[in-house]
Amino acid sequence: MRNMIRNYEQLISHGDQAARKVVLDCLNRALEAADTYAGTRRIVRLEKDTLYVGDKTFDLRKIKNIYVVGAGKGTFPIARALDEILGERIAAGIVLVKKSGPEKLKYLRVLESGHPVPNEASFAGGSEIQRIASLLQKGDLVFVCMTGGCSALMVLPAEGLTLDDKIQVNKLLLTTGALISELNAVRKHLSRVKGGGLMRMLHPATIITLTQDTAPEFLPWPDPCLPDPSTFSEAIKVLKDYEIWDRTPERVKSHLLKGLSDSYLETIKNLEGIEHYLFDTANPRDACLAAVNYARELGYNAQVLSTKIEGESRHVGTVLAGIAKEIHLYGRPFEPPCLLASGGETTVSIEGPAGEGGPNQEAVLGFARAIARYKSISLVSIDSEGTDGPTQIAGGIADGQTVDRATALNVDLFDVLKRHDSTTALGALEDQVITGDTGTNVVNLRMMFIGRAGAKLQK
User: Fold this and answer.
1) What is the CATH code of the structural domain delimited by 8-34+283-450?
2) CATH code of the domain occupying 36-156+191-231+266-280
3) 156 pLDDT band (50/70/90 cuts)?
4) Which pTM value belongs to this model?
């Protein structure tokens, strides 16, 4: 098993070492299962003039042109696989990524753009995808690579809106702590590509979407090639519920209000008349199951708790701690020792000045405060693509000794969370989880180990 945690030895050198080793080893298995490059190579293969994509077969002698477009934090490995498989058969293509690294692709253009707030490159990339879409005709085949982060990395504002309007709304939303589904309800209704808008552009070509989750109604990002259940009225409600409607740019408010009465502006609700195939290169469910299966091989009880956890990060950490304590002390709802894997995407509400941190880092510190002095309990939480929030840290790890260790270092975790300075605190504790670019993005992954009260861990 390839260890994707660069500072693994440091992380198991202190604290509750045995419990830490379990969660880190299980996390490593989850990341291994979330490899989008390997997933794409499994799904897509070419034999002479026959292209196989999952259970679909395409005779390339009958295909006029092949195009590739995409955006997302986990999209580069998908694009790399397609570049290798399709080669010079690709007529044109571009993918927008957060970070491509030193490797370039031979047949596809790779553009680094802005995340979590869009930038000029996001707009340039969205415009180039629109240009490529204008070339498509019936008989063409287009691969669409979409993963988490595409909402910021690919931007094409709705008619009458500007890039600055989008940036301002994104910044406002990121301060609220709104659920990801709520953020996306707004984003999709300010865009020409999100909420199925890209589907309109790519029609009448045959469309193959390669993504990281085939449960479209629950995707944590606004996939441009999938129907959107949200509405303009829901987008307005989000802005009003979080009390940022009055600070929203006037052009944005006018556009949203117009959308209440203009049915054409509404996002796509179904795919009737569009030839579209959706394939899953990796997902949080398989990642969590891989961790669970490995924990069972080690002899532990193991379950997937949920792959859809949302909410304020520190509070999620506190709730997970409550579950851990119930299991540890009373053996319910699961018998210890056990490993609980979970996924989803939590958020952080920020008002005023803030330090450096991210949602996964805040989750583990919230967990640490609630689990203080409990033995044989540990939680690791990371953003699976390797950068938690605006930091270069994947996430963090905590156990029952974390609070005492922080106190000895004169680090007040309550104050740290109040100032949103979790990166600094975890750095002092040597509990930052560092992976670098993992090449995937199945949102947040969490591994929690709970031993039995008074019992020793298995060797």
Assistant:
1) 3.40.1480.10
2) 3.40.50.10180
3) very high
4) 0.81
